[in-house]
Design goal:
The complex is a heterotrimer.
Chain A (H helix, E strand, L loop, with lengths): L1 H30 L9 H11 L10 H20 L15 H21 L3 H32 L4 H11 L5 H17 L18 H4 L5 H26 L10 H28 L8 H23 L3
Helix pairs in contact in A: 1-9, 1-10, 2-9, 3-4, 3-9, 4-5, 5-6, 5-7, 5-11, 7-9, 7-11, 9-10
Chain B lengths: L7 H22 L3 H26 L3 H27 L12 H18 L9 H23 L3 H23 L4 H29 L15
Helix pairs in contact in B: 1-2, 1-5, 1-6, 2-3, 2-6, 3-6, 3-7, 4-5, 5-6, 6-7
Chain C lengths: L1 H20 L5 H26 L2 E2 L6 E2 L1 H30 L5 H23 L3 H19 L5 H34 L9 H6 L6 H19 L7 H8 L2 H30 L3 H20 L6 H22 L2 H32 L10 H4 L1 H14 L6 H16 L4 H24 L14 H15 L3 H15 L5
Antiparallel strand pairs in C: 1-2
Helix pairs in contact in C: 1-2, 1-4, 2-3, 3-4, 3-10, 3-13, 3-19, 4-5, 4-10, 5-6, 5-10, 6-8, 6-9, 8-10, 8-11, 9-10, 9-12, 10-12, 10-13, 11-12, 11-17, 12-13, 13-15, 13-16, 13-18, 13-19, 15-17, 15-18, 16-18
Classes of the chains: A mainly alpha, B mainly alpha, C mainly alpha.
Chain lengths: 314, 224, 487
């Protein structure tokens, strides 16, 4: 039974992720006074792409061909660790937060390899930029997550969320910092404005798009889907760690439904915030990205320090 | 004692103190004057909020007045005055190069450690809240000084000066629930007069050396 | 008690009055009247205290005891004599076109503002108000330092403002810590009142008070010009108008020291050890020696004497730091004679600079030939400040030395060395100015040296014998500060 719920949860996470991307696009369009596309446009795009014949460069190696599958499955595995509508599911116990970050790193590794594989200038450029950003973003993310795990004394996400739930509403300075840090990191990692802009293919600035320039057809669909899923995962992570109220703790229909409804509302809210910030903030120059990420790291560090200094027993 | 065992007031003050400390760091690393002034206003807002929380939780009505004075003075009047000066003197496009940002930031961090260090003798006799609040306010004071040392623009010096006042205000609210009203009013009056005098000085300095770069104030020194 | 209120009221009225009419021709005289009224009232106040002992106002907001009463008297007196000097000085400055009417209004108004701040520092019983008044004194004088609007004076004023503002912020942090310590003790109702704190000093947390004292010493020490926080002092003294230098040196520095000593009394009561004194001794001795050495390097006559002020403040801080009854008595006496002598010197220097048309010592020559009054005034003043017998400075320095030999014999050579260096530094510059060849084109000016004469005669008198009432106050204040009677 529990396994069934776990599998349904993963399925829901994967299924809903294009919807989140659609909703985000919808919000942005409304904010910019444009006529929004349908909420389900992302699904249509994915379906259309997957029907098309993928075109592969002549000197592409096997790596280029399998990378989309690896990326997608690694991201789905990461999603499986994350409590989405319920905690204490059997899948949650299988891996902790460090593995969770590891899945992303794994996916990214193959993505950059695939970018390099064809040997075009853009692919290489995108890969090198991706590695620069991620090498700065990952420590910041780990810092923020460690703040959480130190407070909860566990690296298991599910257990940590459980801890936060049982404590009730506690104002922790460290969580404030960790939240800010994680928001900044999430923006950088999912390739949103002001670090990267997913809707343009401007050679001077693109990062993520540069790497997948050579993909087409179902390969592209998988990679797009994976990146939508990644956005979803970050949203769920932030929503469930810092505002876990509403998540199902028992496995009956009622609480699961409540859990699903609340997490969808939280995600919708987060997406609105992201849409507003993307509308208000201009994309920054690539050279300023390290500054941005080191600020995120500083916040994560401050979160850790304020946990040690302000909150721990003397 | 873990943080979840504290009452809500303590948690709120601790969180606010962390944020106040953060704003000090933000000011320190800021190269553009208008942004620095904006962060300063945010710090003022956090302080007014702290005073309100303290007034509400401790049922201490005169802190409402302090919060009000602080809000008017440090969130509205002084930032408005400073940013008007920046715009008038056409300084908002200048990026003030902090030529050794890393060093400045690192020394800022060590100043925080230093303030915890010198407050260490009080650990046995004071609560966690007090120690932390005092240490944060002391580090805000020291960071304000560092801001003045590391920046060259006179306006940045004033922001540093005023953020030192902010640190003192925070210490006064948290550690002693606010000074007596007379003293509080006197201090507010002094700050207001100082702000006006600074305005006069910007005028005098910019007339006399044609800029507000205080490095150019170097006529008086011992070694000739 | 009424007298204390009146004292504050007069200055407060003066601020507004001179802000309106401060540009009229005979305003200097009116300033003298204001200050003589203040002196008159402070004499009445002093009589009251002399007859009835300490006065604490009903709401405990003001306290006059034997420690501050003589300082109030001194403040009023120097305020008056300097205002006599400033009347002719400012008239001359206006004549040669260095000042506009608006600036004169500012000057006279802020002169009273400064006096108000000084009286408030001395009379208040509330440590918070003391801080506010001390900051107020900076705010009142900062625009006076830049009165001439030269680039140098603006720089000096900016330095003065920033350094003193930042410095005194430390003192407020110290005061907050003090309040924090007091608020923890039950039974102290109004925890910033000095009289309350003094009665309950033993219950205060010694750790917090020690820490608070460091901040207070650094804060008020900046105001006092203690090395290494002295940078503003020579600049502000040399660039502002001379009457301002006279009152800054004669009054502001004293009041800052007064604030430190008031706090030291609380800290000593709480800690029951000598830690506060040790801090003061260290800072004091450092300032004393460094300033004595810096005397030799000066080119500007007002800078020279401002370093001499730092040197003497250092000695007083050192003496208060030693702490015994003898040293405390000596420090109290030194505060008085130094104020009198130094303001007299600045008045003379002001005249000398107007005579020569410059403050550069190289160009001031032959004073005694052009204008014997000024030459002699400067010479005698310097003799007095350098600590020659029979002037009062000699007496107090001798007592400090005696106390040092008694408590810390190994520091006595350092002290002697510093006195010697300072003496050489002063005379090396003063001698050619007084006796040197008179430059051509130097004409006598009308100088009013009456204040100088009065000050120097008083210093001489204090050197020969201390009047009974003053001796009584000194003894009581010594008892209050050090806990034992002198001699």
């Amino acid at each position: 039974m529990n396994w069934l719920i776990a599998i349904i949860q993963i399925g829901l996470l994967v299924l809903f992720s294009p919807l989140l991307a659609g909703w985000l696009k919808w919000c942005k369009c409304r904010l910019q006074n444009r006529k929004p596309p349908s909420l389900f446009q992302s699904y249509r795009d994915l379906i259309k792409l997957s029907r098309k014949q993928p075109v592969v460069a002549h000197h592409a190696s096997w790596l280029f061909l399998i990378a989309p599958y690896i990326i997608f499955s690694a991201t789905v595995l990461a999603a499986s660790v994350l409590p989405f509508i319920a905690i204490d599911l059997p899948t949650a116990a299988s891996a902790d937060v460090i593995v969770f970050v590891g899945f992303f790193a794994f996916a990214r590794f193959f993505l950059t390899l695939a970018g390099l594989d064809i040997g075009t200038a853009f692919g290489g450029m995108g890969s090198s930029r991706e590695m620069t950003v991620s090498s700065l973003a990952e420590p910041a993310m780990l810092m923020a997550i460690f703040t959480l795990t130190m407070t909860a004394s566990t690296t298991n996400l599910s257990a940590a969320i459980d801890y936060v739930l049982t404590q009730g509403l506690v104002l922790r300075p460290s969580f404030l910092f960790a939240l800010l840090a994680l928001l900044l990191v999430a923006v950088a990692e999912t390739g949103r404005v002001p670090v990267d802009n997913p809707v343009t293919h401007l050679e001077l600035t693109m990062i993520h798009e540069a790497m997948i320039l050579e993909y087409s057809g179902r390969h592209l669909a998988l990679i797009e889907w994976a990146s939508q899923l990644k956005l979803m995962i970050y949203g769920v992570l932030i929503a469930n760690i810092f505002f876990p109220w509403g998540i199902a703790q028992q496995f009956d229909i009622h609480s699961l439904a409540v859990g699903l409804a609340t997490i969808l509302m939280k995600l919708a809210g987060l997406a609105i915030v992201l849409a507003i910030s993307e509308t208000a903030v201009a994309k920054m120059r690539l050279f300023r990205v390290p500054e941005y990420l080191s600020f995120a790291y500083l916040l994560g560090l401050l979160g850790m320090l304020s946990h040690i200094i302000l909150e721990v027993t003397r | 004692m873990e943080i979840h065992q504290f009452d809500f007031y303590t948690q709120a003050i601790l969180s606010l103190s962390a944020l106040v400390g953060l704003t000090s760091f933000l000011m320190l690393g800021q190269a553009r004057l208008l942004r620095m002034i904006f962060v300063f206003a945010v710090q003022g807002l956090l302080l007014a909020f702290t005073a309100t929380v303290a007034a509400y939780s401790l049922d201490n009505h005169h802190l409402y007045i302090s919060a009000m004075i602080g809000f008017i003075l440090k969130v509205l009047i002084i930032p408005y005055m400073l940013s008007r000066q920046v715009l008038k003197l056409n300084l908002h496009r200048d990026i003030e190069a902090l030529n050794n940002k890393t060093t400045v930031m690192l020394s800022g961090a060590s100043l925080v450690v230093f303030s915890y260090y010198i407050l260490h003798p009080l650990v046995s006799s004071s609560s966690t809240l007090m120690i932390n609040a005092l240490a944060v306010s002391l580090s805000v004071i020291l960071l304000g000084m560092l801001l003045m040392i590391s920046h060259r623009q006179a306006i940045a010096h004033v922001v540093g000066f005023m953020s030192i006042e902010n640190g003192l205000f925070f210490a006064a609210i948290v550690s002693t629930n606010g000074m007596p009203m007379v003293v509080e009013l006197g201090i507010a009056f002094d700050v207001l007069v100082a702000a006006i005098l600074f305005g006069i000085f910007f005028l005098q300095i910019s007339r006399s050396i044609d800029s507000l770069d205080v490095d150019q104030l170097n006529r008086l020194n011992e070694v000739e | 008690m009424l007298a204390a209120y009146l004292l504050l009221l007069i200055s407060a009225v003066g601020i507004g009055y001179f802000a309106v009419i401060g540009h009229q021709p005979n305003v200097g005289k009116q300033n003298v009247y204001f200050n003589s009224l203040s002196l008159f009232i402070s004499i009445i106040l002093a009589f009251n205290v002399f007859e009835h002992g300490n006065v604490l106002s009903d709401n405990k907001a003001f306290l006059i005891d034997s420690f501050n009463v003589y300082l109030i008297l001194l403040t009023a007196f120097i305020g008056l004599t300097t205002s006599i000097f400033s009347a002719s000085y400012m008239a001359h400055e206006q004549e040669i076109g260095r000042l506009t009417e608006a600036r004169l209004r500012l000057y006279y108004s802020m002169y009273q503002g400064f006096m108000l701040a000084m009286y408030l520092v001395l009379t208040t019983n509330n440590m918070g108000i003391m801080w506010v008044a001390m900051e107020g004194a900076t705010l009142a004088t900062v625009l006076l330092v830049s009165l001439y609007r030269t680039p140098e004076s603006i720089e000096a004023a900016w330095k003065y403002f920033i350094l003193c503002g930042v410095g005194i912020a430390q003192a407020l942090f110290g005061t907050i810590l003090l309040y924090y310590a007091a608020a923890k003790v039950a039974g102290i109702h109004n925890a910033l009142l000095w009289s309350e704190l003094y009665q309950n000093a033993q219950q205060l947390d010694p750790n917090i008070l020690q820490l608070a004292f460091v901040f207070l010493l650094v804060g008020y020490g900046t105001k006092m010009g203690l090395v290494p926080l002295h940078n503003w002092l020579p600049d502000a003294h040399s660039e502002g108008p001379t009457p301002m230098s006279a009152v800054l040196s004669g009054l502001l520095l004293n009041d800052a020291l007064y604030a430190v000593v008031r706090n030291k009394m609380l800290v000593d009561g709480a800690t029951q050890n000598h830690i506060a004194g040790a801090f003061m001794m260290g800072f004091g001795l450092l300032s004393f020696l460094v300033a004595a050495l810096f005397l030799h390097r000066q080119k500007d006559i007002k800078r020279l004497f401002s370093y001499s002020s730092i040197e003497h403040m250092g000695m007083m801080t050192f003496a208060f730091g030693i702490g015994g009854s003898l040293a405390t008595f000596a420090a109290l006496l030194h505060m008085t004679v130094h104020s009198l002598t130094k303001s007299a010197i600045f008045i003379t220097v002001g005249h000398a600079a107007q005579l020569a048309g410059t403050q550069k010592m190289e160009q001031i020559r032959g004073l005694i030939k052009t204008e014997p009054k000024i030459g002699w005034g400067l010479l005698i003043g310097t003799v007095a400040i350098a600590g020659f017998p029979p002037f009062g400075v000699f007496t107090s320095e001798f007592l400090v030395l005696l106390a040092t030999m008694h408590h810390y014999p190994w520091l006595a050579p350092l002290l002697l060395f510093g006195i010697g260096i300072a003496f050489a530094g002063l005379f090396r510059h003063i001698q050619p100015m007084v006796y040197g060849l008179k430059p051509e084109m130097q004409h006598p000016i009308s100088a009013n040296l009456l204040p100088v004469m009065i000050h120097l005669v008083l210093v001489l008198w204090l050197g020969l014998s201390i009047p009974q009432f003053l001796a009584d106050w000194f003894s009581q204040a010594t008892l209050l500060i050090s806990g034992s009677l002198p001699l």
